[in-house]
Amino acid sequence: MPWFTRALLMALMTLLGTSAHRATAEPIDVTIATGDYPPYVHNTSPPTGLLIELVTAVFRDSVYRPKWIITSWPRVEASVQNGQAFGGMPYRRTPEREQIYNYSSPLYRGGASIFSLRGRLPAFNPKAPSDLIPYRVATPRGYWFEPEFRRAGVEMYYSNDEVHSFQLLQRKLADIVVLDTLHGIHLINKHFSDHPQQFSWSPGLPEDNQNVDNYMIISRRYPNASAILKQLNDGLQKLRDNGEYTRILQRYQDTTTNQ
């Protein structure tokens, strides 16, 4: 066999071997932390929900595979900050967070509402955090509005989780709950299905009741974070371009009108 033919065959074998290795290579786990936040994240085994499905699809054709940690929101943030997790989701941009984390491209857009016991807050239309000073706000720690509410002097009653916040409303130990609209409605329908009409919701503060971008916060200490972030952002754009992004979001749409 002529030497150039042997060389060509060896080059082809090397190329095929490299491609086969890539195809069969073990996926690289990427740790992503989040909270139990239906319909975006359901703490099931394995986890499900809008964001779980979305991020899984983003990495589907890459070497990376999401490894989920579902925990409390303070632990989500701590794990991202110290490099134990690549990212945490979902989060809004705030000046305080921008000092600590990088951000992905927007994952989705969503608005917040103010939930209360029906009839308890007639003609309630706050325009600024200071308008909430007469009311007790039930909330878990770690929400985007916490620093601003604290600066305004709003009284916050810290709950164990979002369901506990609604229970505090029931017991009249708190007056309002501020939550993503879809998340709040989902919790009412699931955990208070015997009497969901006891709660009502109205638009939140002007900056909250519009559609606001929500992101994945990205660690500045996680190994190879820049390359993973590029894959995440490129994958999100690909899903938007091919229509899969819209199809995933539409499957999780829920009513946002009072019953």
Describe this structure in words.
This protein has 259 residues and is an alpha/beta fold. It folds into two domains: 26-109 and 213-251, 3-Layer(aba) Sandwich (D-Maltodextrin-Binding Protein, domain 2), CATH 3.40.190.10; 112-203, 3-Layer(aba) Sandwich (D-Maltodextrin-Binding Protein, domain 2), CATH 3.40.190.10. Helix content is 37%, strand content 21%. The chain is built from nine helices and eleven strands. The strands form three sheets. Strands 1, 2, 3, 4, 5 and 11 form a six-stranded mixed β-sheet that branches. A three-stranded antiparallel β-sheet has the order 9-6-10, covered by helices on one side. It has a two-stranded parallel sheet with strand order 7-8. Helix 2 (50-58) crosses helix 8. The longest helix has 22 residues, at 3-24. The protein is globular, with a radius of gyration of 23 Å. It starts with a helix and ends in an 8-residue tail after the last helix. The model is unreliable at 6-23 and 254-259 (pLDDT under 50).
